[in-house]
Amino acid sequence: MAAMGVREPRALTPAHLRRRVTTSDVRSYAEIFEWLSPGELLGDPPETWAADWAAASADRFGPVAAPVR
């Protein structure tokens, strides 16, 4: 962490963490993932999150089974 200029774990940000995405390309988590602002899902979720947010339920944890036809 000292090499990154970070003194404690809570100072780490997505920009500090890296992931190899191809054999020759490494990107930060800030570049790979879409990060939400606090409370953003309570208002208008981003289009890429809308379907998952609509399917979410406080009554269960896990994927929704597809209806049997």
TrEMBL record:
Name of protein: Uncharacterized protein
